Each structure stands twice: as structure tokens, then as C-alpha cells.
Amino acid sequence: MTGIIVKVFGRFYTVLFDGAEVNSVLRGKMKTGQSNYSNPAAVGDIVNFSINKEGLGIIESVLERKNTFTRKDGVRSREDIIACNLDQVIAVQAFTNPRLNLRFVDRIIIRSKRGNIPVLLCVNKSDLMEKGESAFVRSYYKGADINIKFVSALTGKGMSEFKKEVSGKRSLLIGYSGVGKSSLFNRIYPGVDLKTNEVSESSGKGKHTTTNVKMIRADDGTELIDTPGVREFGLVDIEPDDLGNYFDDFREAALNCRFRPCTHDHEPGCEVKRLVEDGVIHEERYISYLNILYSIQENLKNQY
Ligand code: GDP
Ligand code: ZN
User: Which atom of ligand 1 is nearest to the CA of 183?
Assistant: First the structure.
């Protein structure tokens, strides 16, 4: 039988098959294989499984994945798959309370690009937005290949357009608590309740935050994957020389840097730096880049 994993909790997996949820575990041989990943299966995986005498699902194998959204925290640890077979990643932010954090979004974009997954940035609480703030976000991402929507779950502004971007797709949601994820999805899909995850958020603390991910399905087939407790995205698998390639808005300029590869940091004749000085690339975006570059370089140093 073939089903899809809709929930992972510790070593238990919920497999959706023919409209029914089957509580499942992995077949022993699946746990060991030589894989690049720390977890053999994740939410979004299409799996072959059987059901034993006790009615427990036994996951036998995972079908080939379209894409994976992963993180890598430790130099020695393997990549964790948070979810896979996605149509998009939705980074949810608020204009305020909690304060807009585009550096966090930049990290999400890198992880998504690494997995070949499109990104939708949804900035909520536009009713509280100060003058010029949406223009700031647009100019920050000018030249970057991401879709941006400004919405207010409170007033409903921008919500029908946002719904069009979500409807019928399988999306991975990432955003700190308080940005309004529950309010947003409640508004476009009454009956969808992201808050049901919260109990497990507190009990699911610990090292393996990937062990608590859940897919919620709306009546029209729209699928939302919530990641309570996933707050950081390690980037230790990104090479310093390669980081600029994850910034679409830098990539073309990088062809004209005097040195190649160029980390766009201290190198003379760097075209990216020139474009920052000319105001073509937003300075804040460049600072965010350097911030990530230094953290990656720091990680590499600590490796030895
Ligand atoms: P979550 O933790 O991301 O699921 O966020 P919630 O949906 O629980 O919302 C957090 C708080 O922000 C609640 O007090 C909401 O009423 C409020 N909130 C959500 N959306 C908006 C909005 O568009 N505008 C304003 N002003 N407040 C909002
Ligand atoms: Zn450069």
C-alpha cells in the first residue's frame, strides 16, 4: 500500500491512506541505511507500508522525493529533513509584534533554494505597518526571486490574494509564534486550527525539533505543514564561496567581480560591493549576507 506521512512525533509516523490515518513505525532495516539524512522519513514522504496483526502500520520504504527542506546544525551531524515533496515554503512575518526579521527570512530562503523550493514571504499585521515599511521589504528583496504578500488577518486586507497563493498547494509554514499564523489560516480556512499543535510544542522540546511536524489539510485539499518549535536553521552545509549563489540579487553582479570565486567581503574589485554602494543592492540585505557568511566561516574554523 502507498500512503503519505502527515505527522511525525518521535519515532511514530502517521500515514494517510484512503482517507484514514494509520499509526505507523519504520521497518527496522529502514532506520540504519547509509543516508545523508539523520531521519529516514519525514512529513510529505510517500511511503510503501503494510499493516501488521495489531493494526500498526509498518513503513517499508520511501519513494523518490521531489524536493526536501532540510537544516544542518552541526558540522558532524547529518542533515535533518523537516518536510519534503513541497510546492512552496511560506515564511510568515509580522510588520511588528514580533518585529520584522528579514535576516531570519534570508536563512529560510537559503534553505529553500538549497532544496529547490519556491518561497512565499507573507508579512502580516499590515494594519500596524508604518509608512514606508512595505517599500522597504520590496527594495530589500529587489532582484531576489521570491513572492511577497502583505496581509492583515485582522482587517482581511490582501487575504484573498494570499489564499490564491496557498490554495491547492502543499506549503511548509515557518514563522515565530505571535506573527499570526493561526489567525491567517483560520481566516482563509475556517476549521483549520494550527493551535492544536501547541501542546506538543512545549512537550516536544529538545534537540530533535524535526520530530514534531504535522500536515493539516483543508477541505479543498490545500495542505499546510506546521513546524512548531523549529526556530533555527543551521547553514553549516553551505560553503562560504557558494553563499552568494543563494542570493539571486547578487548572482549576476558576481560574474563581474575581479576574483572568482568572490565572497563579496574584503576582495578588491567586488561588483556586489559596488552595487551596494550605488544603492542597487539594499545595504541591509548585504549586511545580512555578511552576517551569514561570518557565521559559516566561524563554523568552519571550529571544525578544526
Ligand atoms: P501565531 O502564534 O503565529 O499562530 O499567531 P496568532 O494567530 O495566535 O496571533 C498572535 C496575535 O497577533 C494575536 O493576538 C492575534 O489577534 C494578533 N494578530 C494576528 N493577525 C493580526 C493582524 O493582522 N493585525 C493585528 N493587529 N493583530 C493580529
Ligand atoms: Zn564580489
Answer: 7
Grid coordinates of 181? 499564523
pLDDT tens for 242-254 read 999 999 999 999 9
HEC-encoded secondary structure of 137-158: HHHHCCCCCCEEEECCCCCCCC
Q: Which of 46, 49, 38 is nearest to 79 (CA)?
A: 38
Give me the mean pLDDT over the 114-122 stretch: 97
Measured from CB, residues less than 6 Å from any atom of ligand 1 are: 124-125, 127-128, 152-154, 175, 177-183, 194
Query: Would you say how long the chain is, in residues?
Result: 304
Asked if omega into 261 is within 30° of 0 (cis), the reply is: yes
Q: Which ligand is nearest to the CA of 273?
A: 2
- How many other CB atoms are found less than 10 A from the CB of residue 252? 12
The Cα–Cα gap between 76 and 42 comes to 21
The number of the ligand nearest the C-alpha atom of 276 reads 2
Cα dihedral 162, 165, 168, 171 sign: negative
177 CA distance to ligand 1 middle (Å): 9
Determine which residue's CA is closest to atom 14 belonging to ligand 1: 178
- Contact between residue 78 and residue 90 where contact means Cβ atoms under 8 Å apart: no
Note the pTM of the prediction, 2 decimals: 0.94
Q: How far apart are CA 119 and CA 111, in angstroms?
A: 10
- Which atom of ligand 1 is least distant from the CA of 92? 3
What is the share, in percent, of the chain residues with pLDDT greater than 90?
A: 79
> Do residues 15 and 49 touch, judged by C-beta distance below 8 A?
yes
β-pair type (88-94, 80-84): unpaired
* Ligand 1 closest atom vs CA 179: 3
User: Pocket of ligand 1, candidates 174, 176, 183: which has the most ligand atoms within 8 Å of its Cβ, to mutate?
Assistant: 183
Q: How many CB atoms lie within 10 A of CB 269?
A: 11
